[in-house]
Amino acid sequence: MTTKNLIGLAATAVLLGGAAYLLNSGSKPSAPKLNGQRIIPELDVPAVAKIQIGEKLSLSAGPDGWTVDSLFGYPADKDKIAENLLKLADLTVGQVARGRTIDHPLTVTLKDSAGNDLAALALGDTHSRKVTGQMAMYGGGSYPDGRYVAFEGETVLVKDTLEAFDGDVKQWCNTRIASIPSSDVKAVRFAHGAESVELTKGTNSTWVLKGLTAKEELDTSKTYSLDSALSYLDFNAVADPKLTEAELGFKTGYVYTVTYKDGSNTVKRVATVGNKVKDGSDRYFKLDDSKWVFTISSYSAENMMKSRKDLVKAKEEPKKDEKKSDEKKAAAKK
Q1: Distance (Å, rounded) from C-alpha 152 to C-alpha 97?
Q2: Secondary structure of residue 66 in the 3-state scheme
Q3: Residue 245 belongs to what H/E stretch?
Q4: How many CA atoms within 13 Å lie on the side-chain side of 197?
Q5: Other beta carbons within 10 Å of 319
Q6: I need a labelling partner for 185 at 20 to 30 A (CA). Which of 119, 145, 170, 204 fits?
Q7: Mean pLDDT across the chain
Q8: For residue 260, what pLDDT is reported?
Q9: What does the DSSP 8-state code read for residue 205?
């Protein structure tokens, strides 16, 4: 091949390479240039007054603070909101996921108090990393360590899983509605209709039920949860304020009253358990000092739905050998 031919081939290669670069570059930044860039540049966190996550979950800031629109205006946890907004403000591109698309993005929109869009984000699936080393030897699988996000026409990977934005409303509020230490409880009362039963703590924190007949005794195997019904109680949902009394069932429900010591004060709390929710096992629930009606698990509700027959059993007659022994001891004392 002549020198002239070699020079011609080289020139052609240069031209083809330049054309390919122009065709592929377009207006997109190259992958290395995207790495490290902020997903939401200069987000004004204090200006955010509404967070819309998908179509079903939204939170709004108002005169009384943040509320969860999806929970009928129930108070949101401002610390959780601040924490997650700061995560978005600090979110940067870890790497570009070439060839990956987000088919069904979860859209997060941030608005100001006037309803203007401040930022929008399209979230994809979480990214999982396989465990290595000793953890892999013991059967460890994988763990979430990031998330795919749409950015500048690319799918990129960020280092935060952003799990609070997955649509679980309970990620944004405090679900604990009662936290009375069982050690502080001194008495409990169960009432349903005309029936009621009350128990008090005696010596050594043992339960005492007044009114037992000579043939009855307290079933101690059923008293383990008497004082803990309101110890760690969380709601599953906030009930629609438009529900009627007939639907809630509080007038014919179960009433649980707990008396406890709060420092030097004796305090009473009254809780009412109503009907089961439609097509579910949870029950409607309310506390005496709360304007909200909640739903709680059936397991939690059952701890407040005791009757006398649930707590009392027939007294066991002493066995013959034990009875003779008791008679001999009684005769010896005479």
Answers
A1: 12
A2: strand
A3: helix 245-248
A4: 18
A5: 9
A6: 170
A7: 87
A8: 96
A9: G
Number of neighbours of residue 239 by Cβ within 10 angstroms: 21
Q: Report pLDDT for 139.
A: 57
Q: What is the distance between the alpha carbons of residues 157 and 173, in angstroms, rounded to a whole number?
A: 28
Q: From edge to edge, which strands make up the β-sheet containing 185-192? A: 207-209, 195-201, 185-192, 254-262, 265-276, 283-287, 294-296, 237-238
CA distance 229 to 256: 9
124-133, 275-284, 315-324: least confidently modelled range: 315-324
116 three-state secondary structure: coil
pTM over 0.90: no
Tokens matching residue 250:
């509080």
Task: Compute the C-alpha angle 17/21/26, nearest 5°.
Answer: 160
- How do 65-68 and 57-62 pair as beta strands? antiparallel
Question: Helices in 28-132 by DSSP H: which ranges?
Answer: 31-34, 78-89
82 vs 31, residue with greater confidence: 82
257-312 pLDDT, tens digit per residue, is 999 999 999 999 999 999 999 999 999 999 998 999 999 999 999 999 999 999 99
